[in-house]
Predict the structure of YARHG domain-containing protein.
Amino acid sequence: MKKLILAMTLFCALLTPCFSQKDSYRLEKFAELTADYNEGQFMETSIEEIKKIISSYSRKFQFFFNEEIFELKLLEECRFIYPGYSLILVIWVHKKRNEIFMFYLVIKGDNVEKELGFNDPLKLSEIKNERFYKSNLFLQLKKFQILEYVAFKYDFNHDGNDDILSFTHDSVTGYIHFEIGVVDMWSECIRTAIDISCFPFFSFFPEFINYKYRQGLKYFDGEQFVFYYYDRIQQKYVQDESATSEELEQIHGSPDFFAEAGIDYAKLERPLVPSDLEGFSKAALRIWRNAVYARHGRTFRSEDLQALFNEYAWYKPDNEYTDDKLTDIDKANIKLIQEFEKK
């Protein structure tokens, strides 16, 4: 279940025969790209050698199961990690069991240096489960996409400035770029690393979740689920070591996690007009309405609301809050927002 989202992105690619003409073309294009990069130092294993190595693994798997029931697919993306090494993701389809097996091969020359396997097979029937598909980072951030599969722009540390999250398909690269002031994405950025030494292929399908009234990033690091939150003092994302993998596995992010994007809370200091609310989703309007209360310190039973407002410096929880603190402007704004919510 931990790898369903990655498998969803690969599902359509599993139906073609092993090493089709298209696969060979992809391999050749990959070799060309890596040859152009750093004078080819990252791709010393030839295409033909890679084919031979993977074919030998195909025979190995068929012997292990004593059945010739697998199709081998080479992933469209081949990644490389260190000079002289090649990283290849291969996929097996067990036709009778309707299962998928996936693993990486770290190749140097004509030898497999390391095999990074996944313990649990993936059921094709489970891959179609919409609940898991909708919880991945791609769908969470799709509305804030700048370049396809490259970067997203959003105020991740809630300081009033947009930030950039580097992103590749369903795998986060491990860096969020915090911009200096209100500048465009190509201006000089402060690169703040997520506090972990992780390889790109250990960053499968991360998602932003609410955990114990705190917003943060959850992902599988190759061994277990981990949770990172933004620490305002250290000014970087750090791991919450109290979060257990078993607990995190049961928590999934919402496609509406970033619904507050574009909301200008300063507008709540004056009477809202219809144009202030036009174009916002019902999820965003819900946040607009509850922000009126949050500005006076109200606490919330809904974990997503409490986790969101906890991220803002202007939010000061007040255990003695009552609606008597609402002004006439607040009440008028709540009424207008509710009218939009009913549309």
